Amino acid sequence: MNKKIMNRQTARTSAEKAEIRAEENRRIHFAAMSHAREVLKSLHTTLCGLDGEEVSTSRLKYGTNKVTHEKKKPLAARLAGAFVNPFTAILFFLAAVSSVTDIIFPCFSLFGKTPEDFDCLTVIIIITMVLFSGTLRFIQESRSGNAAERLLAMITTTCTVTRRGQEKIEIPMDDLAVGDIVHLSAGDMIPADVRILDAKDLFVSQSSLTGESAPVEKTAKMVEEQKASVTDYRNIAFMGSSVISGSATAVVVRVGDHTAFGTMASAVAEEAAETSFTKGVNAVSWVLIRFILIMVPLVFFINGITKGDWVEAFLFGISIAVGLTPEMLPMIVTTCLAKGAVSMSKKKTIVKNLNSIQNFGAMDILCTDKTGTLTQDKVVLEYHLNINGEEDVRVLRHAYLNSYFQTGYKNLMDVAIINKTEEEEATNPQLTDLSENYIKMDEIPFDFARRRLSTVVQDRSGKTQMVTKGAVEEMLSICTFAEYEGEIRSLTDEIRRQILETVDDLNDKGFRVLAIAQKNNPAPVGFFSVKDECNMVLIGYLAFLDPPKVSTAGALRTLREHGVTAKILTGDNEKVTRTICKQVGLKVRNMLLGTDLENMTDADLAEAAEETDVFAKLTPDQKARVVSVLRENGHTVGYMGDGVNDAAAMRSADIGISVDTAVDVAKESADVILLEKDLMVLEQGIVEGRKTYANMIKYIKMTASSNFGNMFSVLAASALLPFLPMMSLQLILLNLIYDLSCTAIPWDNVDEEFLKIPRRWDASSVGSFMIWIGPASSVFDFITYIFMYFVFCPIFVSGGVLYNDLPNHFSGARLMQMQTAYIAMFQAGWFVESMWSQTLVIHMIRTPKIPFIQSHASAPLTLLTCTGMTVLTIIPFTPLGAMLGFAALPFCYFVYLLPCILLYMMLATSLKKAYARHYGELL
Asked: Which residues are known catalytic residues?
C-alpha cells in the first residue's frame, strides 16, 4: 500500500498539485469556520479516533504524513558536477585527439608517423590537470555536504493520539493520518495541521512559519469570517509550530506535503535557481572558447598552407588550443572556493555549496528575515515604566513578586521578568533577595476570561499585598487609583487617557504591554477570591520585545560599509519590525506589506523593491517573489533566515544563509550555515567572497591575455617564419610550468580597496582585457623574433647567414645541422622570453597599483613565479633542453632580455592604467 501511495504522489503534475493545494486550503477554511461536530463528520472520524482500517483509508485518500526534503544527489551526479564544465570538456577532447595523433598513429605507423614519434606526455599533462581540479572540488563539496547532513535531523519523532479502543498512545509522527485525534501539551511540536477541539490556556509559537515573534493563543472557538491567510486562524495549529503552554485536543486536518509546513518545505526539493556565479563562469568560459574556435583553425590553415605539412599543422593547432585554454581554471576556481570554505569553517560556518563563497562577495543586496535571524527569538522585558512613562524599579519589583510566586506555567513573559530582576539584583538593593524576604499567601491563576493573574504575598513585617498583572484594558477595569507623579490619585478620565496614550505609543513601536497593579491588605487568607481584584492601584507598565541580537547592528553597519544593502522581509507585523529597525540603525525609507504585494504586478514590484527597505506581513511565496524580482533587476541577492517560511526565498536567492537557531528545512535550503549567534561572520564571508573573486579573475584575465598575446604572436610567426617558432611539446611545457606558477594565486594578497564594493562577473571585461593587454606581449615577441632571426642566430649559429640563405652556403648534412641549430637557438630564445613576460605580467596585472612597490604579491605566489622563471631559463642549458630541441643560450642573450622585459613591464603598466581609466576598474 505504501508503494501505491508513493506512485500516486510522484505521478502528479504541477497543475494537479496546485489544485490539490487549493482543495487542502478549502478544507482548512471549512474546519476553522465550522462547528467541531461538523469537522469530525467531514473527516469521517469521532472523538474516539480512527480504527486501523480507517487509518489506511485516510492515508490512501489524503496521503502520508511525510514531508519531502531535499534529495541527496547520487554519487554519479556529484562526480559529474565536479568534473563536467566547458573547459574540462575541451581538455578531454584535446586529450582524445592527442591520444590519436601522438599514441595511436605512431603505434600503427599511420599518416607518416613512426613508433619513434610515440609521445604520451601531452595526454598525461592534460588528464592530470583535469583530475586534480575535479577531485579537489568533489572532496571539498562532499566534506561540506556530510557536515551539513549531520545538522539536519527532522523536527520530531512521535506524537500522542487516541484511536478506537486505544487512549493516548504514542505513535511515530509519520504514522499520523487525517482524522486522527491528537493530544498536545507544553513542549510538544504540532505533528500536522490540526483543528483545535478543546484547549486550556494554549499558547503556540509559530514564528518559524509566520515570522510572528510573540506566542499565539489558540482556542476551540469557531471562527465567523474567512481569513486571507490560513495561518491567521486561531483554532488551527500548524505542523512545525510548538506548544509554549497549556494543553489541547485536536483533530488532524492536513498531513505531509499538504500542510503549511510541507508546502514551504517542498520548495527545498525543487531545482535551485541558477546563481550569478554559475552564469558568470559560464559566460567567461564561452568568451574564451569563442577565441579558441577562431584562433585554432586560423593557425591550422596558415601553417598547412605555408609549411605544406598538414599533420604537423594539425598537431600545432592542437597545441595552440591547449595553450589558449586556461586548463587550470577549474582547479584555480575550486582551490579559491575551497580556501574560502576552509577559512569560513574556522569561523564556525559550514559552506554546503562551494560556489556560494563567490556569491557572498558578489552580493549587493541581503534580504533577511527578522524573527530569530536579526532578533534573539525570545521575549525580553525592555522597559518597566511607572504611569509617567519613567523607568521605575518598584514596577519591576512588583512584577517579580507576581511572576515568581505564581505556581502555574511560567510563560515567556514571566521568565523575562524573572531574568530581568536577577540581572539588576546585583546593582539595585531594592531587588535583593525578594524570594527570601516575601512569602506567598494565595493566588488567582490566569484565565482567558479575566486575562490577568494575581498573587498575594507577605513581607517580613507582616504587611500583606495583592499584586496583579495582565492586559491593559482588563487591568484598568479593576483599578480605581493610580500612582501618578509620586502620589496615589483617583483614576480620573484624564489620567486614564494619558495611560492609554502611553500604552498605544508602546504598541505602535511594536512592544507587547502588560499593566501591573497592587493593593494592600486584601481579604484574609482562605477568603481571597476574584472579587478582591477591585479598587486596585495601577503602578505602571511592562513592555516586552523580541530584541535584536547583540551583533545585529554592527553586522548591518558593516554590510553598508561593504556596499551591501540590507532589506528586511518578515512575516511579523509592521510595528514590531519598525521598532527593531530603529534599534539596529536601519533606516526605513519605505515599507510594503503583504497586502500591498497582492495588488502589484511583477513590473510594479520590481520598481518598488528598489526603493523599499522593509517588507512586513509577507507569506513565504511573497518573500520568494521579492527575491526573484530583485535578481531580475540585475542584483546578486542573498537571503538569510531561520524558519520554514524562509525556505522558498533561500532557494530563489543567489546565496541562502541560515542562522544558528534555524529549523532543519531552512538549513537544507541554505548554502551557508552559521553555527554561532555572531552575525559579524557575514563580514568575513563577504571579504572571503571578494578575495575569491579577485584571485579567480586575476588568473582568468592574466592567463587569457597572456595566452592570447602568445597565440597572436604564433599566428604571425606561422605566416612569416619559414619554421615553427615553437614546437608543440615546447608550447605545452611552457603552458604547464606557467600554470603551475599560477597555482599559488588563490593565496595571493588582495588590495584593501578592492574589497570595499560587491564584485560581479562580467564576461565582456575578459574579452576587452585580452584585446587591450594581450598584444602588448606580442609587440615584444615580434621584437624578439626580429632580434633572434636577424641578429642573434646569424651571429652565434650561422656565421652571419640568415636562415633563408643557408641553402646558398651549406648543403647536405651540414645544412641540416645548421638549420636545426638555428631553429633550436631561435626557439630557446623565444621560450625563455615568453616565460619571463608571461610570469612577470602576473605581478603587473594582479593590482592596479605599481607592483613590488605599492602592492606586494603573497610569498607563495612570488616564490612559485620566480621558481617557474628560473626553471624554464635553465632548461635550454640541460640535457632535457636538448631532448626538447633547445640550444644553450649565450650570456649576451640576457643583455637583450633584461631591458626588453623592463620595457614590456613599463608598457603593460601604462596599458593597465589606461584600461582602468577607460573601464573604471582593472579587475
From this structure: 369
